[in-house]
Amino acid sequence: MKTFFEKINGDKIIWTIVLILAVFSFLPIYSASSNFGNGFILSNLIKHVAIVFIGIVIMYGTHLIPYKYFKGLSMICLPLVILLLFFTSIQGNLIDGANASRWIKLPIIGLSFQPSSIATVVLMVYISRYLSVNYNKKNSFTKTIIPLWIPIILVVFLILPSNFSTAAMIFFMIVTLIFIGGYPFKYLFGIGFSGLILFSIFFFTIKSYPDLIPNRIDTWVSRIENFMSSENNENNYQILRAKSAIASGMVFGVGAGKSTMKNILPQSTSDFIYAIITEEYGTIGAFSILFLYLLLFFRIIIVSYKADSIFGQLLVLGVGLPIIFQAFINMGVAVQLFPVTGQPLPLISSGGTSIWMTFLALGIVLSVSSNKKNNEVNSNSPINILSETA
Q1: What value, to the nearest 5°, has the Cα angle with vertex 309 and ends 303 and 312?
Q2: What is the pTM of this model?
Q3: 3, 122, 173, 222 - which has most CB atoms within 10 Å?
Q4: What's the rounded Cα separation, in Å, for the pair 117 and 346?
């Protein structure tokens, strides 16, 4: 292990946290895979191990790229991502029984992936570039509409019909990054109000003409109504089973692989894997996972603070904070703090594109941290956005 860390660059604590979470994921994935039937347990684990291994390779390769090159790459990739989202959104068929406007299937190899996962990383890098270039400049709202807000609106509203939770999370993280990046505060309320109006128009239009475009509005409404309802009816089946799993775990858990709820809890390998972890490893295991994400959050802040440029600081926050935010949402859903969202637990839940994009984002964070000037706070850096925001 010591030899391994000597051959890699970047923040060693982030490397450690990521590897611990990734390797630990093999246990709950193997256990919860019984939900697919005994014949698929081993094959599902092998698939997950392969995806994680590819993800680690992606992270390693990305962290070797000087982070300044991501500026230009974001400008090239963003138009391509928008086109990919548009193509995906107009699909009207199903893939494995799910709305195909969330996935796109590659020909020949037959691999399905979610363009929204790619769009999140690319858009955050693009916004970080724009904010760093225009930092401390007097920009009016009208000057930022085309280069900043039009790409944001296109990405968010192309994702929205099929994946409300991801669109909402992206928009929230964008506003957070823009606020940290020094965008005039006086415009943010207007932007939030405008976003609410646009969403309302979209919502009522789709409710009036449900066949206009593929959408999942009825699913959103149902999930929110179930969350607000105090009745323990069949519509709250997922939450009831998740709460039962958590209650069964108590302090020390029932033991690895001994979960009973994994056989009846839908999405036990993805959306509700935290409930299975809590059942098998107890409150101690649940809080250990939470602690690791909090530690990762702390290290992301440290890497951002030590970055030697405004772009580096914003880049780390832009691609790093959504990972932590998504983890908190997933864990919050399991304990009924939030409605069911469909957000996986980063680095642990099964998946494909979402896992790879998480590793890609962490590779970008490590690329910034691997800069030799980041070994200690760079006193020559003229501005630190975290200090100014605080």
Answers
A1: 50
A2: 0.89
A3: 122
A4: 12
Closest among 340, 350, 342, 343 to 326, alpha carbons compared: 343
| CA angle (354, 49, 343) in 5-degree steps | 25
**Beta carbons of 259 and 32 less than 8 angstroms apart:** yes
- Angle subtended at Cα 126 by Cα 123 and Cα 130, rounded to the nearest 5 degrees: 135
Q: Which residues contact 319 (CB under 8 A, 6 or more apart)?
A: 121, 124, 125, 128, 361, 364, 365
- The tens place of each residue's pLDDT in the chain, 390 residues long, gives 566 666 778 899 999 999 999 999 999 898 887 766 666 778 888 889 999 999 999 999 999 999 999 999 999 999 999 998 888 877 755 544 445 466 676 665 556 678 888 999 999 999 999 999 988 877 778 888 899 999 999 999 888 887 888 888 999 999 999 999 888 888 888 888 888 888 888 888 877 777 666 667 777 777 777 777 656 555 577 777 888 888 888 888 888 888 888 878 777 888 889 999 999 999 999 999 999 999 999 999 999 999 989 999 999 999 999 999 999 999 998 888 888 887 899 999 988 788 999 999 999 999 999 875 554 444 445 466 666 665
* Residue labelled with tokens 């193509």: 87
For residue 139, the one-letter residue type is: N
Torsional sign, CA 75, 78, 80, 83:
negative
How far apart CA 139 and CA 35 sit, in angstroms, is 54
Residue type, 253: G
Residues 300, 144, 128: CA angle, nearest 5 degrees: 15
| Rounded Cα distance, 101 and 115, in Å | 10
Angle at 276 between CA 163 and CA 333, to 5 degrees: 35
Residue 230 has a CB neighbour count (10 Å cut-off) of 5
CB 285 within 8 A of CB 83: no
Supply 386's token pair.
Answer: 């975290």
- Beta pairing partners, 112: 105
CA distance 173 to 14: 21
Q: Are 114 and 350 in contact (CB under 8 A)?
A: no
